[in-house]
Amino acid sequence: MLVSMTGFCSRNENVSLMHMGNVAVTVELKSLNGRFFEAMVKLPSLLSHLEIPLTALLQENLLRGKVYLVIKLEVRDGVGETIIPCWPIINQYTKLSADIIKQSGVSGQLTLSDLIQLPNVFISKPQEITSEDDRAIIDLVTTVAKGLVKSRQEEGARLVSAFGAMLEVCRNKIEQVSSLFETEVTRYKALVKDAMQAHAGSEQPNVVVEELQQDLKKMDIHEEITRITSHLASVTVLFNAASIEKGKRFDFILQELLRETNTIMAKCSLYQISALCIDIKVELEKAREQIQNIV
């Protein structure tokens, strides 16, 4: 099973918070591919203290990728803030009012109706949130994170088919390369045999035979073909492995496959083999593009 790093999940639920009443909580969670785990968490000030535990929760569930979490609160049945009098400001107003009366001789009194119309007499204080409220929010984010994991698994299942088709093309192409190479080796051996027969009885070194043998040695790609076949087999094993994190391992194997393919092209200049190697490299590059999105 492959798990993609791309996915999205959101949820809107009514949560009863102890001092705020019924609150509509919206949780949006999306993830994109990335080399490591990276979380961007946007919370209302009331929940800012949950940033670290929520980040740890996301890393535990999502493992890898760029993750964006947004939580919004909408108070419905209760109130999100408490209005309280600002006593330092009120005391200044009353003191200044008394000083004005005393120094200017103006008669009158500062009434309650006058006072409440003055600026900054009241301040708003956010409602307190309890540990039970924290747990309700964390549980909701956990549910959304599991939904995102499911979304990523579904995307990963789609990638399995595409990735498998690309590797199957590579298997077929490398079999053709092996067949063409064996045919070329047979042809060179026949040339060596003919050159040796033509030079039979001569005391001079057979330069033609030496050159043919050197060319045959240089173009030997048995080892590269064996390695590519082995790497392709290891990909199948990794496909069926129980571990979730496979992206980096796949990427390393694909790099090795590309390296061996380049070596074959450098060693064997036969046109048909070079053309097949180019086809293999195209499929491997396509697979690498896909694998960048795997956890």
Total of DSSP H or I helical runs spanning 4+ residues: 8
Write out the strand line-up for the largest beta sheet, numbering strands in chain order.
Answer: 1-2-4-3
Query: Could you spell the SSE succession in H and E letters?
Result: EEEHEEHHEHHHHH
Radius of gyration: 37 Å
> Helix share of residues?
55-70%
Q: How many runs of DSSP E, i.e. beta strands? A: 6
Please tell me the total number of domains: 3
CATH structural class of the largest domain? Mainly Alpha
CATH fold assignment of the largest domain: Butyryl-CoA Dehydrogenase, subunit A, domain 3
Shape: rod-shaped
- Mean of residue pLDDT values: 85
End-to-end separation = 11 Å
Largest sheet: 4 strands, mixed
**In terms of per-residue confidence, which ranges show pLDDT below 50 for 5 or more consecutive residues?**
none
Brief description of this entry?
With 295 residues, this protein is α+β, with helices and mostly antiparallel strands.
Could you characterize what this model shows?
- The chain folds into three domains: 7-79 and 129-152; 81-126, no CATH class; 159-291, Butyryl-CoA Dehydrogenase, subunit A, domain 3 (Up-down Bundle).
- The longest helix is centred in the middle third of the chain and has 68 residues, at 131-198.
- The chain contains eight helices and six strands.
- Strand 1 (7-17) and strand 2 form a beta hairpin.
- It has a four-stranded mixed beta sheet, covered by helices on one side.
- It is 59% helix and 17% strand.
- It has helices spanning 51-62, 87-104, 112-115, 131-198, 207-218, 222-239, 247-267, 271-291, and strands at 7-17, 21-32, 37-42, 65-75, 81-85, 122-126.
- By secondary structure, the protein is α+β, with helices and mostly antiparallel strands.
